[in-house]
UniProtKB/TrEMBL annotation:
Keywords: Nucleus. This is GCFC2 factor. It is found in: Nucleus. Residues 17-39 are annotated as: Disordered. Pfam families: GCFC.
């Protein structure tokens, strides 16, 4: 079977190429396929920065009452208090995840759980806001 011989040959070729090019930052045991060139790292950072910049503009033209999770949930809370029958008939608990999804996605664009100092989901302000709303809903229903 030639495929088992091919892998060590490729590895040996990459090792020889690194030695000739003077790259000394390779660590044995790590896959060189996962290593990014400085150009690729720069391109990734630029692309990531562009995405983050664009994400800040998403809700630029939206009224503040409709792009803030807390304010949206307060509107639903008011509805529930003033018109409990229509609130219940509208199945709001099933609608809220779809309604809040785009807002939460914007908050999660820069979140990376693989970073050393990442914020736990449960510690994010939007998560606590939804949790408080859910707890208030459960208490009032019981």
């Amino acid at each position: 079977d030639n495929s088992t011989e091919f892998i060590p040959k490729c590895r040996a070729c990459r090792q020889e190429a690194r030695e000739h090019s003077g790259e000394g930052d390779h660590h044995e045991g790590l896959s060189s396929d996962d290593e990014l060139t400085p150009t690729e790292v720069d391109e990734f950072r630029k692309s990531k920065d562009n995405v983050l910049e664009d994400s800040r503009k998403i809700f630029e033209d939206v009224q503040a009452d409709f792009c803030d999770i807390r304010k949206i949930l307060l509107k639903f809370q008011e509805w529930k208090e003033k018109f409990p029958d229509s609130y219940c008939d509208a199945y709001i608990s099933f609608c809220l995840p779809k309604l809040l999804n785009p807002l939460i996605r914007v908050h999660l664009i820069s979140w990376n759980p693989l970073e050393q100092n990442f914020t736990e989901l449960e510690e994010m302000p939007w998560f606590r806001t939804i949790e408080e709303f859910s707890d208030a809903e459960n208490i009032s229903e019981s």
